[in-house]
Amino acid sequence: MGVQAWTVAAAAAAVLASWAFNALVHLVWRPYTITRSLRSQGIAGPGYTFFIGNLAEIKRLRAEAAAATALDVGDHDLVPLVQPHHRKWIELYGRTFVYWIGATPSLCVADVNVVRQVLSDRSGLYPKNIVNHHISRLLGKGLILTDGEEYMRHRKVVHPAFNIDKLKVRRR
């Protein structure tokens, strides 16, 4: 082999080694450190499975729920059918837990007081995170998906529509 062939082979090996290292960090080390950090703070959850996270268990629980659950016509409780994994994990791990969609952690907060604190926060510690950009394109840059000054401007515009007098139901 000539010098040029060795150079190309070395460059390809370096690129492959870099990709392998990044995959190792993203798929193994990062989930391990996040899980360890959250557990030290008292937040547990189902264990991370390499590459797929908890997707297999979510799929299994949804299939079991679909086979076992039939909704009545007047029943609007869809959670056991749509998100049976949340019900199961709340029972096992408490009202705040972490689960994995692939290598991405998701924090479930079902504690009303914590949700109230996050929603009323004005310090910017809890920014809105748009995971699916197709949804943001569908909904636009409205009140739900904005932060900061733009959020305050949108809120000021819609606030009069939610005045208590306008929301009261008039009975005749």
TrEMBL record:
Pfam families: p450 (PF00067). It is found in: Membrane. The keyword Repeat does not apply. SUPFAM superfamilies: Cytochrome P450. The chain crosses the membrane at residues 6-29. One of its GO terms (molecular function) is heme binding. Keywords: Heme, Iron, Membrane, Metal-binding, Monooxygenase, Oxidoreductase, Transmembrane, Transmembrane helix. GO terms for biological process: lipid metabolic process. GO terms for cellular component: membrane. The keyword Transport does not apply. Belongs to the cytochrome P450 family. This is Cytochrome P450. It comes from Digitaria exilis.
